[in-house]
Specification:
heterodimer; A: 282 residues; alpha/beta; Elongation Factor Tu (Ef-tu), domain 3; Rossmann fold; seven-stranded mixed β-sheet; six-stranded antiparallel β-sheet; 30% strand; globular; B: 153 residues; alpha+beta; four-stranded antiparallel β-sheet; 3 helices; 22% helix; FAD-bd_FR_type (chain A)
Chain lengths: 282, 153
């Protein structure tokens, strides 16, 4: 699904947008703000959607939108440098240009979640597409039950949005639990894996919806813990990452058996994903 | 008014056992408190206690020469701490430090491991509970070893 903020007549044509600012999040990750001030209405999107970002002359990659859906005048993407395209995107300095296509993809089911408790589970860079969820939930806080954010990272230094996490941790409207794989003695939060954090939650499984993004192995183990706690698989939603190239369901690079992850996802409910997540070589 | 802490038989590790089984497992039990920063156990010391954590959080640490202590895992109320009393040479392999004030039941390992005239074998119900704890911990360690958050775009 696309809201068609950019051209739907030419879905493969990127629109150039100027880089307003770049902020370093960790050693290999940065957040870029793109200037959409010249566009009437800014850049509306729904939490969970992504854009194709084009480093001019180098290539295109799918990147989740990590900004506030209530502020369409600001377009943010958090990018980890893992290859030549993302490295080229990092080299685009303030005032430079990036090509943008989107927004694409099925968003998080935040309307369905109204009135329910929401558990948001993020691993590593998976916090980026969930940041927009947290901002949405805080903006519409009265519409939801208890809201919890569980975050896992490799180390304290690898955490995204550290200042914001600290602020959210003090916000009484939100329960925040953070864990890292390893830490020095100065770290006062949890050490261990994300699924273990669920043992700290007094979940009411009958009224809980879980939204999850992170490494697929982490999500598989977390789903197992949620199922053990009784959360129905229709209310467990995962954001998947696959080899998305066209982003509009033409090329098939991101196909996961019956799904094109770019078009049918990236957010999918676990009851539909279950048969395919444990199948090798799909 | 402070909430009363749950009694020994309601600790998750022992829940569901008969009074006789609890009595056999916990023939010597102390209630102990540790302030934030205190060590509950120290690498190399004699291991003779199974801690049942009631409240608070404990960090398992390993001191790495030249790097200092590294936190490996957090344990919290409802978890158990300390299994090195099971096998010779009965020495702790890690440090365990209270991250916040901690309340525990401290069970004397002499009651747990046998053999002795009073406790000729490890209680089967205890053995199964320990195996389950070890298996769950093994799964968590495997996940940590995968270094899941390293890659990704």
């Amino acid at each position: 699904m696309s809201t068609g903020a950019l051209s739907t007549a030419q879905p493969m044509a990127p629109v150039p947008l100027r880089v307003r600012s770049l902020r370093r999040e960790s050693a290999d990750t940065f957040t870029v703000s793109l200037d959409v001030s010249g566009r009437p209405g800014g850049f509306p999107f729904q939490p969970g959607q992504f854009n194709m970002l084009y480093a001019l002359g180098v290539g295109e990659v799918p990147i989740s939108i990590s900004g506030d859906p209530g502020r369409p005048g600001e377009l943010l993407h958090t990018i980890r440098v893992v290859g030549s395209v993302t490295e080229a995107l990092r080299r685009v300095g303030r005032g430079g240009w990036m090509g943008v296509r989107g927004p694409y993809g099925r968003p998080w089911p935040l309307e369905e979640a109204r009135g329910l408790d929401v558990v948001v589970v993020a691993g590593g860079l998976g916090l980026a597409p969930l940041r927009s969820v947290i901002l949405h939930l805080l903006r519409h806080r009265e519409a939801y039950g208890r809201v919890s954010l569980l975050v896992g990272a490799r180390s304290p230094e690898g955490l995204l949005y550290r200042r914001e996490l600290a602020r959210w941790g003090k916000d009484p409207r939100l329960k925040v639990l953070i864990t890292v794989d390893q830490a020095g003695p100065e770290w006062k939060e949890h050490v261990g894996v994300v699924p273990a954090l669920l043992r700290d939650m007094a979940l009411d499984a009958s009224r809980t919806v879980a939204l999850m993004c992170g490494p697929e192995v982490m999500m598989r183990f977390t789903v197992r813990e949620l199922e053990r706690l009784g959360v129905p698989d229709t209310r467990i939603h995962l954001s998947l990452e696959r080899n998305m190239k066209c982003a509009v369901g033409f090329c098939g690079h991101c196909q996961l058996v019956p799904f094109f992850v770019c078009k049918d996802g990236p957010v999918l409910p676990y009851d539909r994903l279950r048969p395919f997540l444990h199948v090798r070589e799909v | 008014m402070a909430l009363a802490l749950a009694p020994l038989e309601e600790h998750p590790f022992l829940r569901g056992l008969s009074p006789a089984q609890v009595k056999a497992i916990a023939c010597e039990v102390r209630e102990e408190s540790f302030p934030a920063g205190a060590l509950l156990l120290r690498e190399g010391d004699e291991a003779r206690t199974l801690f049942l954590l009631r409240t608070g959080r404990v960090s398992l640490e390993l001191n790495i020469p030249g790097q200092g202590p590294r936190q490996l895992e957090s344990l919290k109320g409802g978890d158990i701490l300390g299994l090195s009393w099971l096998f010779p040479p009965y020495r702790w392999h890690l440090d365990a430090r209270a991250v916040e004030p901690v309340e525990v039941f401290a069970l004397d390992a002499a009651c747990l491991r046998g053999p002795s005239p009073e406790h000729p074998v490890l209680e089967p119900a205890l053995a199964m509970r320990l195996v389950r704890q070890l298996y769950e911990r093994l799964e968590r360690v495997r996940m940590q070893r995968l270094d899941l958050y390293k890659g990704g775009a």
